[in-house]
From TrEMBL:
PROSITE patterns named in the record: ABC_TRANSPORTER_1 (PS00211), ABC_TRANSPORTER_2 (PS50893)
InterPro entries: AAA+_ATPase, ABC_SmlMolc_Importer, ABC_transporter-like_ATP-bd, ABC_transporter-like_CS, Mo/tungstate-bd_C_term_dom, P-loop_NTPase, Transp-assoc_OB_typ2
Keywords annotated in UniProt: ATP-binding, Nucleotide-binding, Transport
Domain of life of the source: Bacteria
Entry protein name: ABC transporter ATP-binding protein
Residue intervals of the ABC transporter domain: 20-250
Bilayer-spanning residue ranges: none
GO terms of molecular function: ATP binding
Amino acid sequence: MSLSTSAPAEPAGVVEAPAISIRGLRKTFGDVVAVDDVDLDIANGEFFSMLGPSGSGKTTVLRMIAGFERPTAGRIQLDGVDVTAAAPFERDVHTVFQDYALFPHMSVVDNVAYGLRVRGERTKARRERALQALETVRLAHVAGRRPSQLSGGQRQRVALARAIVLEPKVLLLDEPLGALDLKLREQMQVELKQLQRELGITFVFVTHDQEEALTLSDRIAVFDAGRIQQLGTPREIYEQPSSAYVAGFVGTTNLLDSATSQWILGVAGEHAVRPERLRLSPATDTEPAGTGEVRVEATVVETIYLGTGSRVHLRTDGGTELIALEQSTGFDTGEDRGDTVTVRFARADVVSLSSGS
Ligand SMILES: Nc1ncnc2c1ncn2[C@@H]1O[C@H](COP(=O)(O)OP(=O)(O)OP(=O)(O)O)[C@@H](O)[C@H]1O
């Protein structure tokens, strides 16, 4: 796996240790290899996401960074200091879980102040700081309520306030928005991103939601079976997926196997092209393919209206299934099933996928 995508650049002459540095990290549970030889550097102030399907090992990596799990092999450094064997409380990180883990019998402000109490801070000071943290997540007005008197989104924000009041260098977030409905989730995504920018804290975010990872992150690690399949910016991951796995997991894509590539593109090897790159025109368009363009005839299998546009499912003469995403302007997708259309796309939009992954 290549680590060529570097973290945000440092000013010349400044050598700063990464917020988190992981080398050769491995974790097994009996016969199960949960995490397999992971190398990773996360920069200070970075919004870093670990993305992958259930069971791909991302939570286990997070738990090892937090100190809740001991690695089977490898080492973890925080700010240049080896913490592989350190207890969770000895690490300058804080974890926000999906289930919030708020104390139901305490008021919101007492929930937020709890960590400061454990640290032995005086009552007045910790109340002030807790209220300040609640202000940051815009919840000072519900400070006296119990968690049960809050909405899901508000509870999530209390959990965040409880974490940021401790001013950790690193915030670990394990599917923190997983329990929220879509609308609230989207709203919280914006708030989370703003909060991270304001505070400058390093965020390590675990999610199985590719859209969430693309929206929020400076960089993303895509996990599969305990390994990082690709590491890069959202744009790199989306536009230059390194394998069929990443191309298929992050967004929808048209995968062309080697035989199909040979037939449509004139070259062997596996390739991918995103649905929004396909342009459709009626079969009456007999113009040959232009320079750097691919042209193929296909039959409309199904057209699905999406509001902002349409998703058109197609099948070529050779039996290859393709998906085209049409904006509501342009081609009139009022085409009937069974109609023949011309599909065009630029060669520059075709990504060659590494073999064997
Ligand atoms: N405490 C444990 N004991 C045994 N196996 C475990 C334990 N924790 C995790 N595993 C296994 O390790 C693998 C990776 O799990 P992990 O929770 O890290 O994946 P994940 O990508 O975070 O999944 P999810 O999104 O479902 O949380 C899975 O096969 C899981 O069953």
